[in-house]
Amino acid sequence: MQLNNLIFPKPEPSYTKTTFNNQKDIELIYVRNKHSKPQYEIPCLFLKADSDQYIIYFHGNAEDIGSSFDFVYTIRNSMNINIIAVEYPGYGIYTDKKPSQSQIEQDAQAVYIYCQIIMKIPEDKIIIFGRYTSKQQLRSIGTYPSCFIASIYTPKALLLFSPFTSIKAVAKQHFNVLSFLVKDQFDNLTKAPSIRSPCLVIHGKKDKLISYEQADILYKRLGSQRKQCYYSEFMNHNDFHFTFDLKEPIVDFLSLIDQLNKMLIKNI
């Protein structure tokens, strides 16, 4: 099997253009990349909430925005926060482009700019959330576009759920001598020093797919002055307690950011 097929397994589409029609506060939107010739549209799933805060969510690459719906739906409902889940090229109904690191970077940037310019969301209301979720090695890169965006923009916060340092490091952990065949791409570690936004890293110490040591190496390289790590003693790669391992750390972290920002404004 070609390496590209391992990194981009492209599952069968789990949704169509009409799947989310007539669902309250849920809409499939299309972000046009006007800086590309020819122009094309990126499908995104918009889950609306009664809030001025927005999460831009990058899912794992063993799924599409349809199969990640239950996860983002639970986050939206439990945290009362708007979510824009971004599709990857070649996934779901997004067939205009082929998946690659450069295309994912272009799309991530196009969506971020769309949120600011078209949706008029202030940057200090945007939270970037990247998740690595897969039962197979090399099959998820959701934290990479998140680190990429946070390395060139300054969103309110960056949330990294089970991040890796690079695809090459993941390959070395599992395949060792064969890792030399893997290009050093999707490299979060090189982006980390340029990330200035507050960052929360969540990882499980029982994660056998991506060792939590990778998350800790990444955490220590982050350029952010406001950063926290939460390493669950019981969480593995795909099994975690939503409230204790995800919701509470995120809510507490975002609340802390709000408190610190208010203190800074008061002292100006």
Structure description:
The protein is globular and about 45 Å long. The protein has helices spanning 3-7, 69-79, 101-117, 143-152, 167-175, 188-191, 212-221, 242-267, and strands spanning 26-33, 40-47, 54-58, 82-86, 126-131, 157-161, 199-204, 227-232. With 268 residues, it is of the alpha/beta class. The mean pLDDT is 89. Helix 3 (101-117) crosses helix 4 (143-152). It is built from eight helices and eight strands. An eight-stranded mixed beta sheet has the order 1-2-4-3-5-6-7-8, sandwiched between helices.
Brief overview:
With about 270 residues, this protein is an alpha/beta fold.
Write the layout of secondary structure elements.
Blueprint: H1 3-7, E1 26-33, E2 40-47, E3 54-58, H2 69-79, E4 82-86, H3 101-117, E5 126-131, H4 143-152, E6 157-161, H5 167-175, H6 188-191, E7 199-204, H7 212-221, E8 227-232, H8 242-267
Parallel strand pairs: 3-4, 3-5, 5-6, 6-7, 7-8
Antiparallel strand pairs: 1-2, 2-4
Q: Main beta sheet, described?
A: 8 strands, mixed
* SSE topology string: HEEEHEHEHEHHEHEH
Structural class: alpha/beta
The end-to-end span amounts to: 58 Å
Strand tally, please?
8
